[in-house]
Fold this sequence. Notes:
With 262 residues, this protein is α/β, with parallel strands linked by helices. The chain has a domain at 2-22 and 101-211: Trna Endonuclease, Chain: A, domain 1, CATH 3.40.1350. The protein is built from 9 helices and 6 strands; from the N terminus they run βαααααβββαββααα. The chain has helices spanning 5-13, 15-23, 32-48, 57-66, 79-96, 157-168, 196-211, 233-242, 256-259; strands at 2-4, 103-115, 118-129, 135-141, 175-181, 186-188. Helix 3 (32-48) runs antiparallel to helix 4 and helix 3 (32-48) packs parallel to helix 5.
Amino acid sequence: MRLSYSAMSTFSQCPQKYKWQYIDRIKIPPSPELFFGSLIHDVLEFALKNDPIVPQLEKVLAYYDQNWKKQVFEGDISEKEFYNSGVEIIKTFYDSHKPGLSTVLETEKFFEIYWEGHKIVGKIDRVDRLPTGEIEIIDYKTNKKLPHEDDFHYDLQLPLYAWAAETLWSETKNVRLTLHFLRHNQKISPANIKSRADLEQFIRDIVIEINKNDFSAKPSKLCDWCGYLDRCKKGQEYLKAQNPNFKSQNINSEKLGQASLF
């Protein structure tokens, strides 16, 4: 079975959403949050792809502007806020990046891990080699709020990145896992994360559940952030029970991924 962290996380949250997204492949337009995060990732890849030679800030901002899509924010009064936040993120990142301080080995690095008959795939935002020889895996985050240290203990994405690093750079024993919260210009390397054994067990459990072919909806408070809400009666019924004034709208965004810290 071909698996990604995103797919497994989606199934864990709601099997029905997993089916619509990964089996039926029903497309939905990106939300402002997802579009914004994706574009910032693209801009930083553009800036660093020839590191230590970095384009002028004006060129990076021009790339950002050229790829901005106003239609994603149609009817959304926060477009200006998003756009200006992106400009500030790029300027701050540009000012704080020191070419040559570390070696950028990869950006948007795709990986495959073959394990117990399954193929686990993913993409790492950035991989650096530090002066100490240590490999640093950097995952960009555009969250407005910084997480609490305890939150990292429940995340399984970071252990997966560590596993990928061991697979791609087997000669490197030391791997640093870093979350770069761009809005705050703050890097966090959590010490309290799940083990490889925890991750492997999570994957086994997910595979067992997927193979049952039971893709029943699992309503929760996250339904209000789901781009498939319009077609999900259980989700609508759940939200209506929580709020009698709830009315289904033509929600064309997929915000569920942004509801999580990771």
